[in-house]
Write a structure and sequence with these properties.
Layout: H1 3-24, H2 32-55, E1 79-84, H3 93-106, E2 113-118, E3 125-129, H4 135-140, H5 142-145, E4 151-156, E5 161-169, H6 170-173, H7 176-189, E6 200-201, H8 205-208, E7 213-220, H9 223-228, E8 234-236, E9 239-241, E10 243-245, H10 321-326
Antiparallel strand pairs: 1-3, 1-4, 2-3, 5-7, 5-10, 6-7, 8-9
Amino acid sequence: MTENSQISQKAQVSQTSQVMQNSQKPTQKLTYTQKAAQVTSANANANTNANANANAGEWNLVTKKPSPKSQEISYRERRLIVTSKNENWILQAMKMRNAVNNALKKAKSDIIVATVTKTQRGNNIALTISEKYIAKALLKQKDIWEHIFEVKSIKKNEKWYKIVIHSLKINIFNMKIEMKYLRIELEKYNPELKLIINSIWLSKDENRARKNHASTILTFKIEVEAQKHLKKRVLAARSTYRTTEYRDYRSSDQCQRCQTFEHLQNKCNKSSRCLFCERNHLTWEHKCQLPTCEDKQPCNHTISRCCNCQNAHFANSAMCETYQAAKPISSQKDHLVTKL
């Protein structure tokens, strides 16, 4: 046996012995940190191999990011508030709406006015356009339609934040000019309270005439400022008053007390009107005028009359012109323009 072959055999025996020794060693348990490090290292190697493949001319799988959802136009963004020069204007909802739409159509504009309603205070006119456009588009075309309302001013329906003060003494702040003094009083004795307009009574003048106390609305520009004074007492006229949240309603919401729109029964300060016969009583108090008839619900003797449009149907009928005008129209397809 040559000297080289002997050296080769010794090397093989040494390697075999080393393998046997390693196999006999107990396996060492890895800690959580060590396992995590191994996973990270494996991912890094995989990324390195992927980049190498890409450099070699191979394709990598790229996932497409989901496209962001288109932002819907809010109800407020579709409204314009119009103040008329004529303080004694009368709402003719469908006639006004159709007049505006006819003028826009004649000017070859695709904008459609969906509703024409009174604001909750009843002093201004609210124009709501179809969902396709924002109010700014209608405002740009005011020269076409503003003559219909004898416009004094037009503004977008900005989002304000309101709270309600309860049980305010009417005899101190009943007149319009006195509400200006109420604002001064509130801002003076409540240092963090800053209003953007004068306070407004929640109830009408005729309803307050029979009361000693009533509720008024405070309006803030920033929500945080309104929240500071919500559900806590504010100081005015040497007294403190509790506050609660103010709630807005849609133009098509119908009150079950007075049968008019844009508010609900729990916030109504108007006189009761019957849904069936328009008389001054609550609907559940309705009964037949014939002494021999005991039906409380509308019977064959009931002469139906709507208190909103004065036509011969119930106040919640889909045929009511006032209801049709308060209900938004969503597209030109279901919009019928009639001649005045």
